[in-house]
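During the reporting period the student researcher (J.K.) took over the structure-prediction task from the postdoctoral fellow and processed the backlog of single-chain submissions. One of the processed entries is reproduced below for the supervisory committee.
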Amino acid sequence: MSFEDLWIFPKDLAEGNIEGLPKMSIQLQNSLRKSRKLTYSKLGRNIVYKRVWIEKYLENNIRKAQPKAE
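J.K. obtained the following structure tokens:
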């Protein structure tokens, strides 16, 4: 397992390079980190995420579609 397998970088998440995870813009990531909704860590001056942290955020914050009123 290499360093890249352990950590997800914001640029990779913004470009959608991570299989199974949706794209998240850099601005959205900044906002989520600032509001403490998305867990992150810093390696030196680089911000990194673990896949588990992103999946936990998605699980807790995805809303189900509401059916249309008929």
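The committee noted the following: The helical segments are 3-6, 10-15, 26-34, 51-61.
J.K. will present the remaining backlog at the next meeting.
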